[in-house]
Amino acid sequence: MRLRAGRHITDADFAECRRVCLPGSQVRKQLFADRPAVGATVRIQSIPFLVVGELKDKDQTSSYNGFDSEKVLIPYTTMALLFPDPRPFVGEKAVYNIIFMPVSRDLHSEAVRQVKKVLGHRHNFAPDDPGAVWMWDTVETAEMVNRVYDMMQRFLGVVAVVTLVLGGVGVMNIMLVSVTERTREIGIKQAIGAPPARIMFEFFLEALAITFVSGAAGACFAWLASLAVNSIRMPTMFAGLPITSSTILLAAGTLVLVGLLAGFYPARRAALMGPVEALRYE
Predict the structure, then answer these.
(1) What is the pLDDT of residues 48-103, one digit of tens each?
(2) Closest C-alpha among 271, 157, 111 to residue 204
(3) Are 277 and 187 in contact (CB under 8 A)?
(4) 51: buried, middle or exposed (CB in 10 Å: 19+, 13-18, 0-12)?
(5) In the structure, what pLDDT confidence band is assigned to residue 251 with cuts at 50, 70 and 90?
(6) What's the CA gap between 24 and 55, in Å, rounded?
(7) Are strands 72-73 and 20-23 parallel, antiparallel or unpaired?
(8) Strands 47-51 and 20-23, sheet pairing
(9) Contact 7/84 with Cβ under 8 angstroms?
């Protein structure tokens, strides 16, 4: 029998190789659907392989040459014997790609150091030489992506603060217009004995009401938008738009602060009006 690399495989070699495999989750679904896969036989280029296990389904943000769920794993010695790499720059029985994973995120740096130490001892290079071995470190890539997300979150936070400030200025302008339009009403209330604190409280309460009504409308819109987004099937590593209790408390506290700041000056201006000047106002 001759395979694509042109190497002749004897019957003894064929009999001795371990023809077992572990299919990925997507491969298992395509080949077996709901039927059990372990113990079944699959053929790879007409060669039978015994399924001895299944790869667990896992989320991957990146892949080296394909996602694990779409692969079928076989022993390296079996691959080198039956399916040698045809590319001339690789060489027979040569390994050009090694994939490893640390036990935990905290041991990432130590795992990289140990791998470089082992490879350096086998291939005679200094383990601390940065140019000796090229590594695609997905942990570093994930950390870089997290830093980008953190910067985006800070930027959106600044945008939110600016938006709240503009909203507060808008509420303050509305209340100033209201004070101007109701000047004679303020004068009449003062003439019949309403104290300045009562007038200030009324306008202050009106500013808070405007802020809370607009804030409640915005919160309802955000909640409905989050429900709509979360109902869509999310891509890998994207949690959607969760609404947490801390987010609600932060939004409510910010809303109260904006309402207090926006209503203070117009309410104070209304309270300091004299009854005579207010009644004269046209």
Answers:
(1) 999 988 888 877 766 777 788 888 988 888 888 888 777 776 666 667 778 888 88
(2) 271
(3) yes
(4) buried
(5) confident
(6) 5
(7) antiparallel
(8) parallel
(9) yes
Strands lying side by side in the sheet with 72-73: 41-44, 47-51, 20-23, 72-73
Return d(Cα 278, Cα 184) in angstroms, integer: 5
Helix, strand, or coil here: 239? coil
40 neighbors 27 (Cβ within 8 angstroms):
no
Residues in the chain: 282
DSSP letter at 234 equals P
Element (H, E) at 168: helix 138-181
Q: Which two tokens stand for residue 9?
A: 């495989």
In what helix (H) or strand (E) does residue 41 lie, and over which residues does it extend? strand 41-44
Selection from 77, 6, 9, 83 nearest residue 43 by Cα:
83
Domain ranges for the chain: 11-101, 151-280
Structure tokens belonging to residue 114: 């140990």
Give the largest Cα separation in the chain, rounded: 115
Helix segments in 182-280, DSSP class H: 183-191, 196-230, 245-271, 275-280
Placement of tokens 């395979």 in the chain: 3
The confidence band for 9, taking pLDDT boundaries of 50, 70 and 90, is: low
Interatomic CA distance for residues 43 and 65, integer angstroms:
22
Tell how far CA 105 is from the center of its chain: 18
